[in-house]
Amino acid sequence: MPGATCIIMRLHADHPRRDRRRFRIQRSRAEPDPRAASPVELKLLGSDKWAGETAARRAGLRGAAGKLKYAPQEKVAELARECAVIFLATPAEASLELAPRIFDAGVRVIDLSGAFRLRDSTLYPRFYGFEHPRPDLLSEAIYGLPELTPVRAGTRLVANPGCYPTAAALALAP
Questions:
Q1: Could you read off the pLDDT of 140-174 as tens digits, one per residue?
Q2: What is the pTM of this model?
Q3: Which among 7, 11, 123, 163 is annotated as catalytic?
Q4: 163 among known catalytic residues
Q5: Which secondary structure element, helix H or strand E, spans residue 23, and what is its range?
Q6: Which CATH number fits domain 2-172: 3.40.50.720, 2.30.29.30, 3.30.300.90, 3.90.1150.10?
């Protein structure tokens, strides 16, 4: 899903206040906090197809974000140690392989694929076409949008809804 990855990067990189915004997590929302230790910063991009290329060339980003080079997927979990949270905008099979490795690095994950959306692992063959290899992670995943869904302290995995439910939920949210 390179398109989704580019959209997330552009939203962050083009945000007019991105260099001044500092965040803390409180309940389910990320809220500005001038006492927070560091600003939100794009630090890592992963893609086997685009490995070694810059975000400026592949995604049209400017500034420091545009100078970032894509790392191959095999190195993402190791490099993720520098991040507080990783967005996985990958096919479900790639998320299934990457998420556990990223957890082992002590990093939280917001997964945009369908890899962790269903609690019942027996439903994956019917709806996603594969057997789920990590049913132990399904009970840990919180399904929902971080903007709208309360997330309990210590949550390591958020399974985002698909594109259509996300667009509808955000359009209807107060």
A1: 999 988 778 777 788 889 999 988 888 898 888 87
A2: 0.74
A3: 163
A4: yes
A5: strand 23-26
A6: 3.40.50.720
